[in-house]
Every structure is written in structure tokens, then in C-alpha cells.
Specification:
mainly alpha, about 160 residues, 7 helices
Length: about 160
């Protein structure tokens, strides 16, 4: 079980977004070993080792986690934007909470305004983009950024912290 625990950690921390299937392979190996026991279940561990050894590597998720945790430590507990909060009282409605949101393809952000300018787990954190799935993640982030920019009035500049 110690070897499997280390494999799961390796799949998350060192392979990550480069091949998300690595984590699934390692968890399946753990389940197979739990189910079969030794010696039959050891083949599943070998399979997971070989999969991880040959998988592309990326620590982008690990880096994104570290930058997000650093932001949380620096900014503390910030309130979400008032337009996404429930406004059950007249006072809350009067101070513009829960304004009617237009239906769009882009959901309203739940990030506090001060954090919108910060980027965690974005293409600049995915340094290589060389792994197939990393490229897909980059495409997804760029697609959402484009939707947000269109919603803000075709302003292609990134959101600044002072906005």
C-alpha cells in the first residue's frame, strides 16, 4: 500500500495534466490490489508503475495549487461579488445584491474582484503545453477568457485588480 500511495502522489503531482489518466490507473491498481491481494494484485501495481514511468510529466497543477494557496494566505477571506449572492431581505435587495443576471454562455464569476486579476492554473502556469491534454486545458482556458471578455464588452484586456 505504501508503493501505491507514492504512485498516486506521483500521478497527481508529477504527471498531472500532462496525462490525467495516470491517476485513474494508479487508483485502479490500488483497487485491484485490495481486491486480489498478493501476489496476483502486484501485476496491477507493475502496470501502474509502467504507465507512470512512460507518461509525459507536468507539475502545472501543483504550481497552480501553490499560487492559489499563496493568494489565499495573502488576501484572507474575501466576499464573493454581491451580484451572485442571495438577497432574501429588502435591505440586501436595496444594496444591489442579486441583480438580475442576463442569460449568457459565460456564468457570472464567483471570484472576489480583488482576485480576478490573479491567474492560477492558466497557460502561463502550464510552461510547456507540450503534452496533448495540457494543450487542451490551455484551449479551454482561452475559450472561457474569450467569453468573459465578450461579456465585458469586447475588451480583450485582462481584468485588472483595480476594476
Amino acid at each position: 500500500m505504501f508503493v501505491l500511495r507514492r504512485l498516486v502522489r506521483f500521478a497527481s503531482e508529477d504527471i498531472g495534466l500532462a496525462d490525467p489518466q495516470a491517476l485513474i490507473q494508479c487508483l485502479a491498481a490500488k483497487d485491484a490490489y485490495d481486491f486480489l491481494g498478493s501476489p496476483e494484485g502486484e501485476l496491477a501495481i507493475v502496470q501502474a508503475c509502467l504507465y507512470c514511468a512512460t507518461a509525459p510529466k507536468s507539475n502545472a497543477a501543483y504550481v497552480a495549487q501553490k499560487t492559489a494557496f499563496a493568494s489565499a494566505r495573502e488576501t484572507g477571506s474575501l466576499a464573493p461579488p454581491s451580484n451572485i449572492l442571495n438577497a432574501p431581505t429588502k435591505l440586501m435587495k436595496d444594496i444591489a445584491m442579486a441583480k438580475a443576471m442576463p442569460m449568457t454562455t459565460t456564468p457570472p464569476t464567483a471570484f472576489p474582484v480583488r482576485l480576478l486579476a490573479r491567474r492560477h492554473g492558466t497557460p502561463d502556469v502550464l510552461p510547456s503545453g507540450r503534452a496533448r491534454f495540457e494543450r487542451e486545458v490551455i484551449r479551454r482556458i482561452e475559450w472561457w477568457d474569450k467569453r468573459r471578455n465578450e461579456r465585458r464588452g469586447n475588451d480583450s484586456s485582462p481584468i485588472r485588480e483595480d476594476q
